[in-house]
């Protein structure tokens, strides 16, 4: 049993290494560089009448109907059929992938097996070893013509994603050992676990319970229209920060040098904490928001953070925060900015950056464990 578990773990590790290598392929890098432009084409040219919530069930249903109008058969859905096909199918592929990425914690992966056909975009998901090929999804829709191919597949993943979140977002091998991988057709017995696996559903530690509860909270708020609208304005908000709010940022905008420069600018712009609070200074809400977006992206880009929407307090209600994979407490950007302005040391952000850099490095060195496991490691360091 242990030998089978080890073989499965080795095979999964090898698969992840292959995906990491393919991510460096020049053709893949070039394909990924056109993500923003191609998604823009999808929403403005390919399917310009998408509903208000394009990334959920309503959007998927609407997009599949558009695909049926564009592609009368499976052959016509192939990007290589004609240049005109590529102009519509490539944006469609990217849209499909982004739905799974934004709602189900996915990431883009390249399934290209050096067969001469170039990159094969797919979405890797944390609860299954089976990547979702967006080309296959589009071909299935054009071939089956039921109008619900994408929604059916999406709902299947939503169910598995929900169970994975409720379990505390475990690493894939920990997850499959207890729960199997229904998407890939694997049971715990298939990977050498089965009855020997420990089901922590009824015996979760306090860290596991708190983490699972927090993940459910994030998941419940993810589809909030206010939040989705705010996320959609990310690029514009960052552009404003660099063009208008702090136009003289150094080359290393999101690193330590950029953080120091941004803090100095914040002290010039905001004379006190009230001036950095949109509730007390609504006339400067745009500038404050731009600072929040920049500060959040520092954590996202350097420390694998994720933008989240959270009920911060009774006073402020729901606010954008950044979840860090090694900390239960998210970074609240409003609190961070007002703290910088209130203390006025000129070193608040650089000190925070240094602390996060150290902790992040330790977490990476430990193998990027899920938060509950990381909390146990930290506890053992403190108390032996």
Automatic annotation (TrEMBL):
It comes from the Bacteria. This is Uncharacterized protein. It comes from Desertihabitans brevis.
């Amino acid at each position: 049993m242990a030998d089978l578990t080890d073989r499965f773990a080795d095979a999964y590790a090898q698969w992840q290494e292959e995906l990491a290598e393919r991510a460096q392929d020049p053709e893949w890098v070039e394909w990924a560089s056109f993500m923003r432009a191609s998604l823009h084409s999808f929403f403005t040219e390919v399917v310009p009448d998408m509903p208000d919530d394009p990334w959920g069930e309503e959007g998927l249903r609407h997009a599949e109907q558009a695909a049926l109008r564009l592609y009368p058969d499976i052959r016509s859905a192939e990007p290589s059929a004609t240049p005109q096909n590529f102009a519509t199918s490539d944006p469609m592929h990217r849209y499909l992938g982004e739905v799974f990425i934004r709602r189900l914690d996915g990431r883009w992966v390249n399934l290209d097996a050096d067969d001469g056909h170039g990159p094969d975009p797919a979405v890797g998901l944390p609860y299954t070893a089976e990547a979702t090929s967006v080309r296959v999804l589009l071909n299935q829709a054009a071939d089956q013509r039921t109008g619900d191919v994408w929604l059916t597949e999406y709902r299947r993943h939503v169910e598995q994603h929900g169970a994975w979140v409720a379990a505390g977002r475990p690493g894939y091998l920990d997850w499959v050992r207890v729960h199997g991988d229904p998407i890939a057709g694997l049971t715990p017995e298939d990977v050498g676990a089965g009855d020997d696996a420990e089901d922590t559903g009824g015996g979760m530690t306090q860290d596991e319970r708190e983490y699972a509860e927090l993940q459910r909270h994030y998941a419940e708020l993810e589809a909030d229209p206010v939040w989705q609208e705010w996320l959609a304005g990310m690029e514009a908000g960052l552009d404003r920060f660099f063009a208008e709010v702090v136009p003289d940022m150094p080359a290393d905008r999101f690193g330590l040098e950029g953080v120091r420069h941004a803090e100095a600018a914040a002290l010039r712009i905001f004379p006190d904490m009230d001036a950095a609070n949109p509730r007390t200074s609504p006339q400067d809400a745009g500038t404050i928001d731009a600072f929040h977006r920049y500060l959040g992206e520092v954590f996202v880009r350097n420390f694998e953070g994720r933008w989240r929407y959270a009920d911060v307090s009774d006073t402020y209600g729901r606010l954008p925060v950044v979840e860090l994979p090694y900390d239960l407490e998210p970074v609240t950007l409003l609190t961070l900015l007002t703290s910088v302005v209130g203390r006025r040391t000129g070193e608040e952000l650089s000190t925070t950056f240094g602390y996060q850099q150290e902790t992040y490095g330790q977490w990476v060195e430990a193998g990027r464990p899920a938060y509950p496991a990381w909390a146990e490691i930290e506890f053992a360091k403190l108390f032996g």
